[in-house]
Specification:
Blueprint: H1 3-26, H2 45-60, H3 86-104, E1 115-118, E2 121-124, H4 125-151, H5 165-179
Antiparallel strand pairs: 1-2
Helix pairs in contact: 1-4, 2-3, 2-4
Pfam families: DUF1572
Protein name: DUF1572 domain-containing protein
InterPro entries: DinB/YfiT-like (IPR034660), DUF1572 (IPR011466)
Length: 180
């Protein structure tokens, strides 16, 4: 397998993990809790979802042939208002990820060196993908952080629980030793 194929597969896996992590955090909250913003300058998880969805749809629609900042996008509006229901919010969330995955899984290794534009700024496809990895992981981190603040002691850990790192490492060592 060539480096380009390995890269594209890894990026898809990373995006899937980001989506799953955010959904696991959001799944611990009620629709009302998803509207909570810690401060006036903060965004609720629902608004972060709105922004992420708008960003993904804009960036990944006609990815190789049109600017990633579509004239139809209302970025400022993504930080206003909310959703009428959890179903509406999750539908927007899914729509953004669907466009991303439909596009990125169709990319070929030769596409990685092509030039695309975001707000008229040229990027090669790798730069554009990495920009999106950074952007989405930033917001997934915000979603997890706000969800943890809301759930507090009732938070269901998504990764390695505090104080369990050595136990986890021992399990991993044993798991991989058994495969060798």
């Amino acid at each position: 397998m060539d480096v380009g194929t390995i890269y594209l597969n890894e990026v898809v896996d990373n995006f899937r993990n980001m989506k799953k992590t955010a959904e696991s955090a959001m799944g611990q909250l009620s629709f009302n809790e998803l509207q909570f913003a810690p401060t006036e300058e903060s965004n609720s998880i629902a608004r972060i979802v709105k922004h992420m969805s708008g960003n993904m749809i804009s960036r990944w629609t006609n990815f190789l042939t049109s600017d990633g900042e579509k004239p139809t996008r209302d970025r400022d509006g993504e930080f206003e208002g909310s959703y009428a229901s959890l179903e509406e919010m999750m539908s927007a969330w899914s729509a953004g990820w669907e466009v991303l995955f439909d596009t990125i899984t169709q990319l070929k290794v030769d596409d990685l060196v092509k030039t695309v534009f975001i707000r008229s700024e040229p990027h090669n496809v790798i730069q554009s993908i990495e920009r999106q990895v950074y952007h989405l992981s930033y917001h997934v981190g915000q979603i997890v952080y706000v969800a943890k603040q809301i759930r507090n002691c009732e938070w269901e850990v998504l990764t390695i629980p505090k104080g369990k790192s050595r136990e986890f490492q021992t399990q991993m060592n044993n798991q991989f030793r058994n495969k060798m």
